[in-house]
Amino acid sequence: MDQDGFKGKTAIVTGSATGIGAAIATGLAARGANVVINYSKSEAEAAATADSARRHGTGVRLAQGNVARDEDCRKIAAAALEAFGAIDILVNNAGTTKFAAHEDLDALSAEDFSQIYAVNVIGPFQMIRACKQALAACGAASVVNISSVAGTSGLGSSVAYAASKGALNTMTLSLARALAPEIRVNAICPGYVETRWFSDRFGAERTALISKDQAATLPLKHAGQPDDIADAAIFLCGPASRHITGEMLHVDGGMHLSFATRNRG
């Protein structure tokens, strides 16, 4: 099925075993795109996501790799080209964090910063570099970086995480200029989203309470779901957004509006 011009296109989605990445990969497959599902450690979950994507009748390739390693990024790009002969879409979704209170400066080490930046900033750069030639050759390529409202507010799970997403946002602007007109580069800035990150750390019961509390503070009064982010990312991947580049799109239930109000006192 060809929906919105995705049929026959090839997309790489990093960190797509679970959560937002899985929703994006399966959503692209549902619209007719071939997808490369990347994972670092979650092999069983990646295989399950691949099975879901294959039900839509499009090509699916699994590619293990840690985006913090340049050789792995090149391997993921090569896997896409070997399987499908082209790369039209790159979604940089892989990310990591460390939960640390912002006022506790001793909770983060230099190694923590290095690890978070390696995945959240250097990883997307390396993936774009590895895919650049193939993306440019397709003539109407799209890169979508999954950032965070933390990158525009300075809030979030830790100072290092917020700083890394701020860096990802400025890199989005830099590369949108540098890679135009052949490649568009945009970012999605989610707020709180119900994913495995929170349930793995806090457990199902406490995560449910966190979601309820988060929803109560938002103008739209509901916690984000992976499909909310996927729908926006897929829009930025496709021809309907052909005149958009260098954009940081908040998909956060209005969370950034609450920050603006708070900052005004």
Task: Give an account of the 3D structure.
This protein is α/β, with parallel strands linked by helices. It has a single domain, classed as NAD(P)-binding Rossmann-like Domain (Rossmann fold, 3-Layer(aba) Sandwich), CATH 3.40.50.720. The chain has helices at residues 19-30, 43-54, 70-84, 110-138, 150-153, 159-179, 196-217, 226-237, 255-263, and strands at 10-13, 34-39, 60-64, 89-92, 141-146, 183-190, 248-251. Strands 3-2-1-4-5-6-7 form a seven-stranded parallel beta sheet, sandwiched between helices. Strand 1, helix 1 and strand 2 (34-39) form a beta-alpha-beta unit. Helix 3 (70-84) packs parallel to helix 4 (110-138). The chain is globular, with a radius of gyration of 18 Å. It starts with 9 loop residues before the first strand and ends with a helix.
Gyration radius, rounded: 18 Å
Number of domains: 1
* Poorly predicted ranges: none
Distance between the termini: 51 Å
Task: Supply the helix-strand structural class.
Answer: alpha/beta
| Beta strand count | 7
Task: Please give the CATH architecture.
Answer: 3-Layer(aba) Sandwich
Order of strands, main sheet, comes to 3-2-1-4-5-6-7
Mean pLDDT across the residues is: 91
Shape category: globular
User: Superfamily at the CATH H level?
Assistant: NAD(P)-binding Rossmann-like Domain
Question: What share of the residues lie within helices?
Answer: 40-55%
CATH topology: Rossmann fold
Biggest beta sheet summary: 7 strands, parallel
Total helices: the number is 9
